Structures are given as structure tokens and as C-alpha cells.
Amino acid sequence: MESGLEDVVAAETVLSDVDGKRGELIIRGFSLDELAGRRFEDVVALLFGGFFDAVPDADGIARGLAAGRQRAFAETAAIDDRLVNLPTTDAVRVLLARLPDADDLDAAFALLGAAAVLTPAIIRRKAGLAPVAPRPELGHSTDILSMLTGGVPSAVAAGALDTYLVTVADHGLNASTFTARVVASTRAGLGSSVVAALSALKGPLHGGAPGPVLDMLDGIGTPENAVAWIEAALDRGDRLMGFGHRIYRVRDPRADALKAAVRRMAAEGDIDPTRFALAESVEAAALAILTRRKPDRPLDVNVEFYTALLLEALGFPREAFTAVFAMGRTAGWIAHAREQAQTNRLIRPQSIYVGPRPRAAA
Ligand code: ACO
Predict the structure, then answer these.
(1) What residue's CA is closest to ligand 1, atom 8?
(2) Rounded CA gap, 201 and 325, in Å?
């Protein structure tokens, strides 16, 4: 049996293909390069097509998302002190679990709207600020940033968030998406799939890595420190956050899409150039050291490395990064749950019992 189910095929999907040898991600027939400049609304329309009755075009999806955001704002009244004291991702999970557990397009918009509204609201409550109401006339990414800061973001900042949400919207049968499909296979509703998937996403080996990437950059401090810091971390047996991937044996294509967005922000002055220079030095040092130390296991940059810089520059606190990831990936989870439901057979694998047998009666 392969540990970690590596190389086990557990589903057929029309949604996305991850080619780990060539470093390619295809989402419903489009390469990530083609999609990285599009709006999140366009990619939701792409992912949902055929999985609900009468999926609207991207403008209709934009209206559905706006309605979902507006409905979700009522849920921010439930953010009490106990939730404020939880990590943001955990607080979002509690609030998502309160939504009706249905299977239709309205339920999908409610979940996507809630993912977008609750995270900025919890971040603001943690800072002692009141949540900002969504504005239906704004695009999804622009509105998320407006709910975070209370102001209207620049086009470059909103475009960077669109690039991020599109880049992480779907990615084959990763741990959280598999979780969403397992739950959907029991005929539980979309809300159950999304809450379970978010629980899988939050671990540091999956979607919880970008916060620790920033901790690493802070620990390193200056480009001159990179080699010594990384060598010491690897000597201790630590893993470098933002490097390595189960499928990719070359550079994660999402890292390039995000690095390009970060570069655009740097050109606009939205990112401190010394921060960007530090990240590039750490990337180069880590790749050289990992290649020398692990010659048989190619370890390259993954999606989380430049995610960390991008989300930091947009003003999200690092402890909330996983919840921001979920704003994008919820689209993929929902599409996979619906795809699973279309051709469903209960997912129920087997295990091999290696424990003791009952002793035979004397
Ligand atoms: N730093 C140092 N060494 C590493 C790293 C890393 N980031 N990743 C893997 N390795 C090493 C392992 O220690 C192991 O070495 P060994 O054979 O000498 O014991 C070898 O590479 C193979 O590692 P596996 O655990 O088999 O790799 P796996 O495919 O299970 O792990 C994973 C993939 C979890 C992403 C891993 O690379 C990792 O922990 N990376 C750091 C965390 C991270 O960036 N997570 C985000 C992933 S992207 C996403 O999910 C959205």
C-alpha cells in the first residue's frame, strides 16, 4: 500500500489537471497562465458550468456572489468574544457550519459569500473595529478588500487578489478537495463538504503554510542570513515552508503566477522592495541548499511562498491566510462536491488490519 495514497487514483474529474512533471495546471481546458489575469467570477462560472441547473454567465455569477455576500453580512452579528478569540480560520469554520446545508446554486453563493465576508469581519473584530458591510456594486475581490480596510482598494491590489483567488480555486484531488468529495459521497449537503474541507485545509502541510513562510522570512531578517538560517533549520530536521509538493517535481506554476502579481505590486509601491528582495534571496538560497541536500527528491517553490508576500501586502494578517485561501478554494470544493454527486457511489475504501486477533477460546 502506498503511504499517503501517493499515485492512487480516486476520482475522474473534468475540473482540473495537475501535471507534476511538466509543472502545468489546467482548469476546465484553460492553462493557469490563461486564467491568471481573469476575474474570480469568470473562474467560478467556468467551474460551476454543468453542475447546477442553469448556471449563469460570469455577470450572473457576479450578481449571485454579491447577493451571497449581502446575506452573509447578517451572520457577522454572531461574532461574539469567544469567536474573536479563536484563530480566524476556526472562527470562520464555526460560522460556516451555521448555514443551511443545501445542494443548490443559492447554497453555493451563500457559502462563497460567507467565505468572503466572514474573514474580513473577524479580522476587524480582532482589531477592535466594526465589520464593514459588503457593496453589491463592487467586484468580488474589490469588495473583499473594501470590507477588510474600509476603503476602496487600488485596481492593482484588487487585481492581485483576483489572481490569488483564481490561482487557488482548484487543484486536482488535494487533501481538502478529496475530503469535500468523500463528504458529498454520503449525500450530505454542500455546507458539510465545505466545512470538512476547510478543516483539512488548515493543517500546515496543506493550506496552513503561508503564515509560517512569513515567520521564516522574519527569522532570516536579511539576505546575508539566508544560507546560515536555512542550513540550521534543516539540521534541526525542520521543513522549509513554501517548498516541496506531493505532485510537482518542478516549480509549482502557481508560484510563478503569484510572483508576477507580487512584482506588479512592487512596481506600484504596494510592496516594500526590501521585503521582495529578501524573499527572492531566500528562494534562491533554499533551492540551492535543498538541491544539494536532497539530490534524489526535487523540492521546488510551491504556491504558498509568494502567497505569503501577496497576502501580507494586501493587508491580511498572517494568522488569517488559510481563511483567505478558503475564499478561493471554496469554488473548487463546491464544484467537486457537485461532480461527485452527479455520478455518485459512496466512497468507502478498505483498510488492512494489522492489530492483534482475539485469542482463541481455551
Ligand atoms: N523542506 C525540507 N525537506 C522537505 C520539504 C521541505 N519543505 N518537503 C519535503 N522534504 C523532504 C522530506 O523531509 C523527505 O526527506 P527524507 O526522504 O529524507 O525523509 C523528502 O523530502 C520527501 O518528503 P515527503 O514527506 O515524502 O513529501 P510529501 O509529498 O509527503 O510532502 C509536502 C509534500 C507536505 C508539501 C512537503 O513538501 C512539505 O511538508 N512542505 C512544507 C510545507 C508546505 O509548504 N506546505 C504547502 C504545500 S502546497 C499546498 O498544499 C497548498
Answers:
(1) 244
(2) 9
The pLDDT profile of the chain, 362 residues, written as one tens digit per residue, is: 778 898 899 999 999 999 999 999 999 999 999 999 999 999 999 999 999 999 999 999 999 999 999 999 999 999 999 999 999 999 999 999 999 999 999 999 999 999 999 999 999 999 999 999 999 999 999 999 999 999 999 999 999 999 999 999 999 999 999 999 999 999 999 999 999 999 999 998 888 877 889 999 999 999 999 999 999 999 999 999 999 998 888 889 999 999 999 999 999 899 999 999 999 999 999 999 999 999 999 999 999 999 999 999 999 999 999 999 999 999 999 999 999 999 899 999 999 999 999 998 66
- Our answer on whether the CB atom of 22 is closer than 6 Å to any ligand 1 atom is no
Q: How far is it, in rounded angstroms, from Cα 158 to Cα 313?
A: 12
Rounded to whole angstroms, the Cα distance separating 110 from 216 reads: 36
CA 205 to centroid of ligand 1, rounded, Å: 8
Q: What is the strand order of the sheet 30-31 is part of? A: 16-19, 24-27, 30-31
Q: Is 242 in the pocket of ligand 1 (CB under 6 A)?
A: yes
304 is catalytic: yes
Report all structural domains of the chain as residue ranges with CATH numbers, in order of start: 11-207+318-343 (1.10.580.10), 210-313 (1.10.230.10)
Residue nearest to atom 45 of ligand 1 (CA): 205
**Catalytic annotation present for 245:** yes
Q: With a 6 A CB cut-off, is 244 part of the ligand 1 pocket?
A: yes
Tell me the CA–centroid distance for residue 296 and ligand 1, in Å.
Answer: 13
Give the closest residue to 213 by CA, choosing from 116, 129, 311.
311
Q: What is the pTM of this model?
A: 0.93
